[in-house]
Specification:
alpha+beta, 2 domains, five-stranded antiparallel sheet, 43% helix
């Protein structure tokens, strides 16, 4: 029976590692792009809403994704939507920094260190969870 628990544990850990690697590569790619792209001050025009997953019995929470507009050096107006959510609804008219693709200014990203911080927290959480669950399987009395 413990063999089955270890197999399930290994599959879960493999899936978690795959997800973290995918998210880490995406975060690094976005950070690399933002470092090369020009920056602009964008004006928040409103927000769209979404819900957190409510995973593990946690309650679902409403999240706000700012929508914004900015101008390039030629004065052309572009609009975008942030991938970074917040608990508080952003105030229209407030400023945020965005990086935009000079070849296609319709592609823009909000400049923030939150995705990297979140990745660090997730890696630490899953490492502790993996060790604790492996230990728990070893001491769990079956029989």
């Amino acid at each position: 029976m413990k063999t089955i628990l270890y197999i399930v544990w290994a599959l879960f850990i493999a899936a978690a590692i795959f997800s973290l690697v995918y998210a880490g590569r995406r975060t690094r790619r976005q950070a690399r792009l933002m470092a090369q792209w020009p920056k602009a001050q964008a004006t928040v025009t409103g927000s769209t809403t979404g819900w957190t997953g409510g995973v593990g019995g946690a309650s679902r929470n409403l999240r706000y994704y700012p929508t914004y507009q900015f101008t390039d050096p030629q004065g052309t107006l572009f609009m975008g939507k942030s991938e970074i959510s917040g608990v508080k609804q952003p105030l229209p008219g407030s400023l945020i920094e965005v990086a935009y693709n000079p070849a296609n200014p319709n592609e823009s990203l909000q400049v923030s260190s939150e995705p990297r911080t979140a990745m660090g927290c997730l890696i630490a959480f899953f490492a502790v969870f993996a060790v604790a669950s492996f230990w728990f399987i070893g001491v769990f009395p079956l029989g």
